[in-house]
């Protein structure tokens, strides 16, 4: 059974539908005391980082997610949910995250754009898989996908972290980390549930972990 953390940050119907399309049973969960009963966990999110953390802290969901991550079972953060996995964000001031992955979330630096681009970064863009000394093979999250593939993005902030956590990068004005992994903890900046076949493949891969 796959749990989807419900903390009043975004419409979650599309996430549930995406899992249903790949034959996986996923359900919303708003009780932090029940997270441990799930085999896998999704942390979604749309909106502001600080508001999201306040919602998570209001009933102890933040600590329940940390405990789940420490259990070794798979956890996937999507969009804002990926950003929450990091130590901090500069969105509307300094905000503390879940600190499950070392790094921070920053605004796009438009001074680095070589031509006129709009923020937020919105629409289809390419994610390319990356490997490094710590990870000689591609992440299992991307099984069956090509080295470069398109997904749907909507965001104004992005993660900055050590390359040892990066499993995917994207170029928008400059290169940024768009997918991460720290053991059993995964994060992806674009919305797989809105990304047609490529996104459904990622959803299916996570369901099979």
Task: Describe the overall structure.
- This protein has a single domain (2-208), classed as Rossmann fold (3-Layer(aba) Sandwich), CATH 3.40.50.
- Helices cover 22% and strands 33% of the residues.
- The chain has 5 helices and 13 strands.
- The strands form 2 sheets. It has a 9-stranded mixed beta sheet with strand order 2-1-3-4-13-12-11-8-9.
- β12 (174-182) and β13 form a beta hairpin.
Characterize this entry briefly:
The protein is 22% helix and 33% strand. The protein has five helices and 13 strands.
Which tags fit this structure?
209 residues; nine-stranded mixed sheet; alpha/beta; 33% strand; Rossmann fold; globular
What's the SSE blueprint?
Blueprint: E1 2-5, H1 13-21, E2 26-29, E3 40-43, H2 49-58, H3 61-70, E4 75-78, H4 80-84, E5 86-89, E6 95-96, E7 101-107, E8 121-129, E9 148-155, E10 157-160, E11 166-172, E12 174-182, E13 185-188, H5 196-208
What is the CA-atom radius of gyration, in angstroms? Answer: 16 Å
| Widest sheet: strand ordering | 2-1-3-4-13-12-11-8-9
What is the number of helical segments per DSSP (H or I, 4+ residues)? Answer: 5
Strand content: 25-35%
Helical percentage:
10-25%
CATH class membership: Alpha Beta
Shape: globular
Number of domains: 1
Query: How many DSSP-defined strands?
Result: 13
